[in-house]
Give the backbone structure.
Amino acid sequence: MEEAKGAGSCGSHQCGHSGGGCGDKFLNPTPMLDELENGPWPSFVGGFKELAERTKKPMLRGVMDQLEYSYNTKMGYWKGGLVTVDGYGAGVITRYSMIKDKIPEASEFHTMRIQPAPGLHYNTEMLRELCDIWEEYGSGIITLHGQTGDIMLQGIEQDKVQECFDRLNEKGWDLGGAGAGMRTAVSCAGPARCEQACYDNLELHLQALRHFVSQLHRPEWNYKIKFKFSACPNDCTNAIMRSDLAVIGTWKDAIQVDEPALKEWIEKNGVDALVNQVINLCPTRAITLENGGMKIETRDCVRCMHCLNVMPKALSPGKERGISLLMGGKNTLKVGVNMGSLIIPFMKMETDEDREAFMELVEEIIDWWDDNGLDHERIGESIERVGLKQFLEGVGIEVDINQVARPRDNPYFKAKY
Ligand code: SF4
């Protein structure tokens, strides 16, 4: 194994110092990492340094040294393992160092995934308690939030995990999902703060977590499965690209038009703006100019949200609201990147009965996948392999003209446009 550049001797392990000590500085020199602090953007390196100098936690110094060593040798040195808490089979992502003889301070740096509140609404008291407990047992580093939606508490040793979890659990926090089971899920701000919300995605998220809590803590399926709950087709959780089950708010009837607000918008911005910023940018040409105002042909509207986003006071989703369920979105795995395919075009989601019907449907879908999927195969990959027809027949979902057989497979178009 190649030695770190300029390795010298400092305390308990090799560091980047050429001299015989580190002076008053707690951290060892990290010239490669320091490069990441250049430029206009905030850098995680700066945050690491500030936290390490303030808390004097050797683990943080060790992780910095290991990362610097990785940058020099162009190799990663973390490996997995298994760490859980009593009664759980998931929730802690392990990180053991392969070079602990060289940098013993970073020999373990596990991550605890903590379930966030739906919509990511917290009160400050809970956040303070979380931070205090984490600083006591772990590194103090928190990521808000990981791709799975979890709060990521990064950097703890195995023998502290159980006690840390018990303390967090006493305060109402629970571990998130990991492994081949239900994942924690993500929801956007929804009706709590957004006027475009078409269903109570926060309630559905909470009920889905409760319904699948056993499979979340004790993985038992072929592979992972992720929900994301976006309350309108703007899809602020990126559900279509990044979840197996994308639950997206939508409406069935006509877009609601507030005529006085529309008139005000046109008076302020002009008819040219109406034509150039709204009418001409409707992807399906569903809007026409009529008597200096606009007319929307509902059957041509594909709920892209463009016109509603441009004039949110004048236009709002229709009154008959509910969800669409898309399936199979995911990042690169066996068959590459996929966006979700529309499976259920519309389902009402207002009452507890509606939510129960939704859970039953999802259970059917997961049962089919559990029976027919291969090991380590996401549900979209299973559908892709056997065909949409077989999937629909297997789950007992009616064929609908709106279902798309071939998912769009470049999720980056959203980032670009
Ligand atoms: Fe056109 Fe999109 Fe507005 Fe529908 S939501 S009318 S498709 S711009």
